[in-house]
Amino acid sequence: MICITVTPSSRTLAKADLLNAARHGDIIELCLDHFSKDPDIDDLIRAVDKPIIISCRRKQDGGQWEGTEEERLLMLRRAIAAGPAYIELDLDIANDVPRFGSTQRVISFTRLDRPETDIDRIFDDAANARADIVKFTWPTPTLGAAWPLLVAVSQKRRLPVVGMGLGRPELTFSLLGLRYGSPWIYAALEKGMEAHDGQATVFELNDTYHASDIDSKTRFIAVSGFGESQTLTTRILNAAFKELDLNVRCLPIELEDVSDLKRMLDILKIRAIIVGNQHGSSILELADHVDAHDSESGYLNLLLKRDNGWHGYNTLWRSGLKALESVISESGKSLSKMNLLVIGNGGIADSIVYALTRREGLVSVCGPKDKLAQQTAQKNSCRFVPYQNLYETLADVVIIADPNISMGSQHGQINPSVIKADMTMLDVSDLPFETEFMAEARERGANTINTAGIYTQLLEAQFKAISGKELPESAFLKGLSDE
């Protein structure tokens, strides 16, 4: 079930929010700490026919309550007397608000600085405070940080447990919570009404992540990152899984330290992870089996668990090389006779340099971090260009391969004057979106390569490896229409 949190500041807004939330959620949390005047709680909880949780959070717990603690306790006692389905009480004040009627007590423990580790003790304290449901809330910036929260929800206990992660990666916990039987997960009604920064809306949960389809038998495919490109990938893949009637859905995760990743994926029974940006290099060591070419590229964007271990794949360098060769061949030329300049540091740049050196062209590498660019050049036996010499370097083809590089005149940025009308330009740093470099290149008359085509080939290859099936064209249309 999805619990929609509403944070109105007035009685009029509260009724409107409650009615809207009732149309889209299973449970509604009405936060009293945002009201500018004392609300008529009895009137509000009877405005809708969905179960309501009443809460009133202090600022130290992420709320907006500005009154005294005595006033807050009085409001909570009045609220429970009105007979809501649930009342949320902080663990430290739970014994000061007696049980009343049929209202169930959600005893809550919150910390805003870090994940909690002493879960068993806190659970026992909440149970002793006459909890019907125990709630944990703390930051979940990475999969590792969400792990204790997930363990708290997934383990069989004598009382149900719900949780709320703080930050955008809360999505990870929420979707896993549905898989492991959490009584409900939390969502905002719409953008601008989030209970905390980054909270997903109910529409995101349903339209992008297909939350209503997730059950105890759902298998997850992990997608690393929460950016626009990763979200688009999730929309397309989820649409494909649904169309093919596969009980598989995408799980967004934020990686930081990959040292414990395989263990967590195994416990969660996740057998595939799509990886991008900076983590493509770090997960190479996690693969038990990698094709020789993919291994030499120094970058992976897909890990698959098979019977004999984890298999790593790099679908980027092949897709990028194929698109580049297709465009160059139309002009009757060959990559082997061209000056090819790759700009960037990191796994994506390493992968593209490796691909280009397979065609024996004159490949040069240049990046804001000269030492890293020099290492890439040495590894691939190609030319290193110091960053300060970028504008003096002649190139027939320029490839931007680093999501951290932006256009401008500041240190580390690239001045658009590097783009010439007679060159070919490609930016693979944020597939499939057109970056400012590509727009500038088009304006300056350069030949630009369609990144959407590269992304399509890349995603089709990944989907085929994961599912053994072709990615339906209609899934692309559905994913794009949901933007």
UniProtKB/TrEMBL annotation:
Coiled coil: none annotated. The keyword Zinc-finger does not apply. InterPro entries: Aldolase_TIM (IPR013785), Aminoacid_DH-like_N_sf (IPR046346), DHquinase_I (IPR001381), NAD(P)-bd_dom_sf (IPR036291), Shikimate_DH_fam (IPR022893). One of its GO terms (molecular function) is shikimate 3-dehydrogenase (NADP+) activity. SUPFAM superfamilies: Aldolase, Aminoacid dehydrogenase-like, N-terminal domain, NAD(P)-binding Rossmann-fold domains. Keywords: Oxidoreductase. Its EC number is 1.1.1.25. GO terms for biological process: chorismate biosynthetic process; shikimate metabolic process. Gene3D superfamilies: Aldolase class I, Leucine Dehydrogenase, chain A, domain 1, NAD(P)-binding Rossmann-like Domain. CDD domains: DHQase_I. GO terms for cellular component: cytosol. PANTHER family: BIFUNCTIONAL 3-DEHYDROQUINATE DEHYDRATASE_SHIKIMATE DEHYDROGENASE, CHLOROPLASTIC, SHIKIMATE DEHYDROGENASE. This is Shikimate dehydrogenase. It comes from Thalassoglobus neptunius. The gene is aroE_1.
